[in-house]
Design brief:
CATH superfamily of the largest domain: NAD(P)-binding Rossmann-like Domain
Shape: elongated
Number of domains: 2
CATH architecture of the largest domain: 3-Layer(aba) Sandwich
Bound molecules: NADP nicotinamide-adenine-dinucleotide phosphate
Amino acid sequence: MTAMNTLSLGASHSLRIGFIGAGRLGQALAWSLAQSGLRVVAVHSLVEAHAAALAEPIQGCTTVSAQAVVDACDLVFVTTPDSVIQNTCDELEWRNGQAAVHCSGVTEVDALTTARSHGACIGGFHPMQTFGDPHAAVSSLPGCTITVEAEDAGLMRVLLEMTQGLGCVANQLPAGMRGRYHAAAGYTSQFINALFDQAVCLWQTWGATEEQALRALLPLAQGTLSSIQRAGVARGMPGPVSRADLSSIDKHLRAISPMGEDMLHFYTTLCLRTVALAEQAGGIDAQQVSQFKDLLQQAEER
Ligand SMILES: NC(=O)c1ccc[n+]([C@@H]2O[C@H](COP(=O)([O-])OP(=O)(O)OC[C@H]3O[C@@H](n4cnc5c(N)ncnc54)[C@H](OP(=O)(O)O)[C@@H]3O)[C@@H](O)[C@H]2O)c1
């Protein structure tokens, strides 16, 4: 087993921080860290202009080779796409006492094993936020959760300080849980798009546009989010199932059936989950649960 390496420097404000990969997350994180008073001193990216765009607003930040970032910095964020984090790390000479950190949600920290074998500490720093436009992401980052992971106590302390300095909330994840953790994020991220897609399809059947549908549906979704925030997942669930309203669900099923098996099956699968939640919240009893289940099954068999 590899002996644990330790970060040899002090508090985060004294660290020289570098970035390899000046994409959406790299830019937003570098700018946010610099704004929080930390020293972002070097960046490398495949396209020089992208590295320059990251460096430009940060006083004293230079664009250099990847190896020069590692040589010049105490803590290096490897912010390349997930598929090349390991190769990028493998090609570099790391040293004792520094840290290599990636920002992926799904890639295990072990992807940085080469840095560890050279004496560096390794870690993960995953902001639970979507980074599209890096300028917009700088504003949306405060208040988000950042999942931090590090074996070394010194690096963990630094990552926690950074999280606090960014105005974010820290979440710690045990090693080996990233697949599950990232799948969980998907439910409340891109799977929402899949739900909206179904709703918009229904609106389009009477000639409404996606824009019209979203104008009506987004405030509804925001209301549901507030309700979950106030009352929790089960008790904060709105809708006919929570009110034991079988007749409304029957009307939904009859309206959706002609739109094809896939659409109906997706509806019944989701509806079945809401039946379990309504029971958990105490909104329906065992008899009503079986009535809902029968109704959903009959619709599938029709
Ligand atoms: N975007 C998000 O919403 C988000 C959210 C949380 C976490 N993350 C994580 O953040 C990391 C970066 O994602 P991203 O969305 O910022 O990706 P991205 O926008 O595609 O940026 C990746 C950057 O890495 C650079 N790059 C690619 N190969 C490289 C190499 N071999 N050496 C140096 N630079 C290289 C690219 O350079 P050029 O542009 O110069 O070609 C690109 O700018 C990933 O681990 C991702 O999982 C992303």
